[in-house]
């Protein structure tokens, strides 16, 4: 249930997400060992200083007359995992699809406001979207490998974007498959069809295919919803490994997954950003009652 | 809606309430036995510990089941975490009430019941009041009342100091009865600790309701 006074409290101020330690009581910790542990956590979270990868200001989007997103204001931190949560139809996937201009393919889709990735205006009409999609890769809900060999799936993008010698391409395919935690399972059958892989392997192949292009941002739209628990675990472990090198934005309906894999969580409702904060805060002490009701499963 | 989770949380609340009432009865009985030198009453506490032990185990199991089955978050998570701590706290209060009863039995063996200082009686009343406020704060998720409980602890500590002075003075005057005076001191100490534990529970309530950790900060 939505009240109008709640609407007033979720207006357009930018919502900076400071990556501090989630429960930062270091000044109050009495136990010296706890203080040491707290400092270690602080150091880990502040290491590699967080900068903004994606800057969103007064961003609205429409499908025809229907306004899907309302005046979004947020910063998505670089080399962190940001989870977008919210009930179906809340606009999180629409937002994700604007980040690499997937909505260009939808005739009725239009938008206003600012959307910058690494300082580049994503919405610039003159922007080369093929290059944008190299920099902002996407992994979809259902694994969608090309009906080609495992090798060719990974080599497809690099062949399109770069001129590489066979040896260089081999090395890139191997590295991408290793980074996607798939190499050991497929190294002896690189020339076999990707369609012969299990669902979980196919999804990791799609991730390998995306990271082969050294993107800065990885968009993931419910990447595990078609996978069994074990394959889900593998992909989540992979996200944990990739977080140091990529800015990952993941849409998920699985609250526990958001809690497990992300550093920052943004809650969307009816096209509006209701709350964005450190994931631990969202799942232990959210500030907005709507967020509380959603994450505890009491509405939405 | 996760009705099942709501049902299980309601069961947990009820179990915690039963635990609290058990501890409260025990404290009231121990203090009554002490005021009236009713040794049978004191004995009844000494022996009836199974019920509260069983409750404690049940509550812990209930918390673990909720964590395992529902992976609660936000206020639900904070409540379950707080409940685990509060459960132990009530069990300790019951233990301390039993210690008071044991001391009363021991004092009764003294040929002449010592007349305890007024401060000790005041302490007993104050601690009972603290416990009942704590239970109300828990029941009504009343952060203000919890804050008040935290503050009340200082009053009990002050009375404890007065009892200590009385014991020191009395022992000096009548060294032969030192053992009896020390038992009085031990009763005061148990009550003082019950006050501390009530303050701890109040902190857990503040955490469960408001989400902030106030332990290790001045009341």
Features:
heterodimer; A: 300 residues; Rossmann fold; 4-stranded antiparallel sheet; globular; B: 219 residues; mainly alpha; Methane Monooxygenase Hydroxylase, Chain G, domain 1
Offer a concise description of the structure.
The complex is a heterodimer of chains A (300) and B (219). Chain A has 300 residues and is α/β, with parallel strands linked by helices. Chain A has helices at 4-9, 32-46, 92-99, 129-135, 150-161, 166-179, 183-186, 199-211, 229-242, 255-261, 279-284, 289-295, and strands spanning 52-63, 66-77, 81-85, 109-117, 120-121, 136-139, 217-221, 247-251, 264-269, 272-278.
What can you tell me about this protein's structure?
The complex is a heterodimer of chains A (300) and B (219). Chain A is an alpha/beta fold and 300 residues long. Chain A has a single domain, classed as 3-Layer(aba) Sandwich (Rossmann fold). Chain A is 38% helix and 22% strand. In chain A, the strands form 2 sheets. Chain A has a 6-stranded mixed sheet, with helices on both faces. In chain A, a hairpin with a 2-residue loop joins strand 4 and strand 5. The mean pLDDT of chain B is 92. Chain B starts with a helix and ends in a 9-residue tail after the last helix. Helices cover 85% and strands 0% of the residues of chain B. Chain B is built from 7 helices and no strands. In chain B, helix 5 packs antiparallel against helix 6. With 219 residues, chain B is mainly alpha-helical. Chain B has one domain: Phosphate transport system protein phou homolog 2, domain 2 (Methane Monooxygenase Hydroxylase, Chain G, domain 1), CATH 1.20.58.220. Classes of the chains: A alpha/beta (300), B mainly alpha (219). The interface between A and B is medium-sized, with 19 and 16 residues.
């Amino acid at each position: 249930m939505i009240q109008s006074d709640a609407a007033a409290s979720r207006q357009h101020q930018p919502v900076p997400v400071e990556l501090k330690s989630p429960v930062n009581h270091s000044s109050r910790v009495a136990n010296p060992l706890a203080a040491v542990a707290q400092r270690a956590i602080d150091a880990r979270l502040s290491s590699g200083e967080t900068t903004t990868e994606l800057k969103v200001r007064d961003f609205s989007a429409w499908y025809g007359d229907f306004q899907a997103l309302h005046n979004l204001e947020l910063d998505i931190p670089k080399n962190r995992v940001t989870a977008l949560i919210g009930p179906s139809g809340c606009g999180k996937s629409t937002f994700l699809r604007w980040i690499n201009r997937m909505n260009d393919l939808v005739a009725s889709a239009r938008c206003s406001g600012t959307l910058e990735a690494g300082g580049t205006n994503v919405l610039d009409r003159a922007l080369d979207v093929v290059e944008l999609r190299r920099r902002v890769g996407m992994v979809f809900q259902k694994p969608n490998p090309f009906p080609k060999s495992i090798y060719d799936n990974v080599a497809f993008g690099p062949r399109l974007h770069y001129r590489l010698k066979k040896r260089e391409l081999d090395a890139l395919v191997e590295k991408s498959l290793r980074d996607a935690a798939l190499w050991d399972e497929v190294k002896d059958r690189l020339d076999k069809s990707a369609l012969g892989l299990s669902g979980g392997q196919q999804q990791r192949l799609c991730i390998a295919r995306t990271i082969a292009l050294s993107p800065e941002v990885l968009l993931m739209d419910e990447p595990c919803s078609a996978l069994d628990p074990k394959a889900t675990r593998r992909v989540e472990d992979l996200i944990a490994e990739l977080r140091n090198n990529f800015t990952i934005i993941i849409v998920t309906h699985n609250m526990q997954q958001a809690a497990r894999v992300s550093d920052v969580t943004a809650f969307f409702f009816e096209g509006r950003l209701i709350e964005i904060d450190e994931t631990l805060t969202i799942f232990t002490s959210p500030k907005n009652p709507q967020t509380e009701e959603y994450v505890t499963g009491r509405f939405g | 809606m996760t009705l099942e989770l709501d049902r299980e949380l309601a069961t947990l609340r009820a179990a915690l309430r039963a635990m609290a009432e058990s501890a409260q009865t025990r404290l009231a009985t121990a203090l009554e036995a002490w005021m009236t030198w009713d040794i049978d009453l004191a004995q009844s506490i000494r022996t009836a510990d199974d019920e509260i032990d069983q409750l404690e185990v049940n509550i812990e199991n209930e918390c673990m089941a909720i964590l395992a089955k529902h992976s609660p978050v936000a206020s639900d998570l904070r409540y379950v975490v707080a409940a685990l701590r509060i459960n132990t706290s009530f069990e300790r209060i019951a233990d301390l009430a039993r210690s008071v009863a044991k001391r009363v039995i021991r004092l009764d063996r003294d040929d002449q019941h010592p007349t305890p200082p007024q401060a000790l009686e005041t302490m007993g009343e104050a601690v009972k009041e603290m416990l009942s406020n704590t239970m109300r704060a828990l029941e009504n998720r009343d952060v203000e009342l919890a804050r008040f409980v935290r503050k009340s602890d200082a009053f009990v500590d002050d009375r404890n100091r007065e009892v200590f002075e009385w014991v020191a003075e009395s022992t000096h005057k009548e060294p032969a009865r030192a053992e009896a005076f020390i038992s009085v001191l031990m009763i005061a100490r148990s009550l003082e600790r019950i006050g501390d534990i009530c303050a701890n529970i109040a902190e857990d309530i503040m955490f469960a309701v408001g989400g902030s950790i106030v332990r290790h900060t001045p009341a």
